[in-house]
Amino acid sequence: MRDGIIHYVRQYSEDSGIKVLDRSVAIVRAVARGEKPLAQLSEETGLPRATTHRIATALEVHHILSRTESGAWTIGPALASFTSGTSPLLLSAASPIMRDLVATTGEAVQLYELTGETRTCIAAEEPTAGLTYTVPVGSQLSLAAGSAARVYAAFSLIDATPFPASELRKVRETGLAESVAEREIGLASVSTAVRDRDGSVIAVLSVSGPAERLSPSPAGKWGEALLAARSRLEAAL
């Protein structure tokens, strides 16, 4: 099995003649197939553990890789920013704030960007244990359902919306939008707009989790914590 892994690394990742680059690509490829603890990452790439750790740590500095609370390596937010045009500063500033929000709420946290007729998850943090809801980075979701879609609708960033005007007015007044079992059965969420210094909405920050934990009002349960996290993020920007 190890010979097969090494063959894979050589065939797909060690063709440029620049060893450190080829090894970095091998590590990213391995992590892209699913988060890996160091030992497994070393095994899959066929690289010594010390070498794997050194390169992965360097990739983390550039946000190409990141680490979960358990220490496993996972794909970082920079890869999403390369394809979406997202500001690296936004992702860099959001990462520790999102982790703190996960620690506070025990729920999953996402950062969305408006991408035409969809909203795209550009960063996500998950709790290490318990029942949760995962939105992979890069996922493109509807603008017709969910709390994040309501935020975009409230600030007239999408043309047509199924949401009532009174509901959108409340989003503008409180800064919070919520949904329960709307986009997906059993899922609830609360979202808020993230603005730049000019007041333009540049992203939406969300907390999501099982409806049984967040009902009857996700905003009532975690709205205050979400608004505090948003304020920290806007200050960092």
Automatic annotation (TrEMBL):
Top-down, what is the taxonomic lineage of the species of origin?
Bacteria, Bacillati, Actinomycetota, Actinomycetes, Mycobacteriales
Q: Which GO terms describe its biological process?
A: negative regulation of DNA-templated transcription
Name all IclR-ED domain ranges: 71-237
Species whose genome carries this gene: Corynebacterium imitans
Name of the protein: IclR family transcriptional regulator
Q: Where does the signal sequence lie?
A: none
PANTHER family, per the entry: HELIX-TURN-HELIX TRANSCRIPTIONAL REGULATOR, ICLR FAMILY, TRANSCRIPTIONAL REGULATORY PROTEIN
Its encoding gene is what?
Answer: allR
Extract the GO molecular function terms from the UniProt entry: DNA binding; DNA-binding transcription factor activity
Concerning InterPro entries, the annotation shows: GAF-like_dom_sf, HTH_MetabolicPath_Reg, Tscrpt_reg_IclR_C, Tscrpt_reg_IclR_N, WH-like_DNA-bd_sf, WH_DNA-bd_sf
Q: Where is the HTH iclR-type domain?
A: 18-77
UniProt entry keywords in alphabetical sequence: DNA-binding, Transcription, Transcription regulation
